[in-house]
Amino acid sequence: MLSSDDSRFGSRLDDLDDQILAALRVDGRIGPGELATRLGVSRTTASKRLAALLHTTDVRVVGMVHPETVGVRSLAHVSIATDAPAIEVGRRLAARPEVPFVSLASGAYPLIAEVRAHDDTELSELLDVIRSLDGVESTETLVYTDLVRDVLGPTKVSVAWLDGVDRRLLSLLQLDGRMPYTALAARSSVSVGTARARTLRMIEAGVVRIGAIAAPGREGRKVDVGLGVRMRGRAGAGVERIRQLSEVRFLATTIGRYDVVATLHADTLTDVVTALEEVRSLTSVTQLHSWVHLHTLKESYRYPIETGR
Predict the structure, then answer these.
(1) CATH code 1.10.10.10 for 158-205
(2) Helix, strand, coil % over all residues of the chain, rounded to 5
(3) pLDDT value at residue 8
(4) Distance CA 73, CA 118 (A)
(5) Is the dihedral of CA 267, 40, 43, 5 positive or negative?
(6) Residue 216 C-alpha from the chain's centroid
(7) Residue 201 — φ and ψ, nearest 5°?
(8) What are φ and ψ of residue 171, in 5° steps?
(9) What's the pLDDT score for residue 261?
């Protein structure tokens, strides 16, 4: 039987799910009480809808760390032309653990991928593997010089900042960002109080960002658009202006065809047009190219973390 809140939302339950997902992107460990207050629904409704959303395969709440924090220092954006169905090539590419992101895209390159490696030698070897995949005709690579904003926005910190307990907790949070403190404590061999304090400290410091990542197709009404930007002179001020746009979900400075690559995550194409115009208006921007991410085949940013004893 529907609660009064369920009846009020009726056919808008999908909209409520979208609002919950948006809240989870900001704070993946948000509780039903705070969620209810934020969305203006009863705690019962918030709890029920949150549980339903989390128990599907559509949404994963994960802890994300900056790659350099765990020694992953060589990253690249790869545009791929194919001489076979792009979705088949994309699935083969998505099977690689070093490839966290694969998308079917509009434009000259039907596949966009990201590669993350520990060093330049490993990155070069991975690019060789990609070029050798059946169906890959050619590739164009942008090597990142600075990961300005990653998905969910974790902060880069020195690995020396983390001890064995921190690393064990991060490994667990990468698997399940909402893992209860009791489970984190038991699996890290520490007290519940220690697990809570260490986790909150790392969240507060930005070492780990816990948020929701939607499975392919879950956010069908959202629009993801990639940007390739060429700039004159020093890129710093222009990059900072781009980073401040609310639609920017990902941003990196690069070596290659573009000086900056970014991803806009927006509600409508109108929002995308507005954001593109803001980027074009920057005096340092000389060229702006864009492509639409039509379907995400893979998005999984999980790294092996040396936990120590």
Answers:
(1) yes
(2) 40, 30, 30
(3) 45
(4) 5
(5) negative
(6) 13
(7) -60, -45
(8) -60, -40
(9) 97
Amino acid at 240: E
Give buried/exposed letters for 100-139 (b at 16+ CB in 10 A, else e): bbbbbbeeebbbbbbbbbeeeebbeebbeebeebebbeeb
Q: Looking at the structure, give the CATH architecture of the domain made up of residues 68-152+216-299.
A: 2-Layer Sandwich (3.30)
Residue linked to tokens 């490994």: 171
Triad 32, 22, 209: Cα angle to 5°: 85
| 158-205 has the same fold as 10-55 | yes
Handedness of CA 266, 268, 271, 272 (dihedral sign): positive
At residue 295, what are phi and psi to the nearest 5 degrees? -160, 125
Asked: is 10-55 a CATH 3.30.930.10 domain? The reply is no
Domain limits of the chain? 10-55, 68-152+216-299, 158-205
**Measured distance CA(189)–CA(191) in Å, rounded:** 7
| Contact predicate 240/262, CB 8 Å | no
Q: Which amino acid is at 71?
A: G
| β 101-105/285-299 pair status | antiparallel
Directed axis angle between helix 32-39 and helix 13-26, to 10°? Answer: 120
Q: Which residues of the chain have pLDDT under 70?
A: 1-14, 57, 159-160, 215-221, 306-309
Q: Is the dihedral of CA 43, 45, 51, 57 positive or negative?
A: negative
Q: How many residues does the chain have?
A: 309
Calpha distance 293→220 (Å, rounded): 11
pLDDT in tens, 268-292: 889 999 999 999 999 999 999 999 9
Nearest Cα neighbor of 25 from 272, 168, 267, 212 is 212
> Which residues, including other chains, have CB under 8 Å from residue 134's CB and lie 6 or more apart?
84, 89, 92
Q: Which amino acid is at 200?
A: L
> How many CB atoms neighbour CB 142 within 10 A?
22
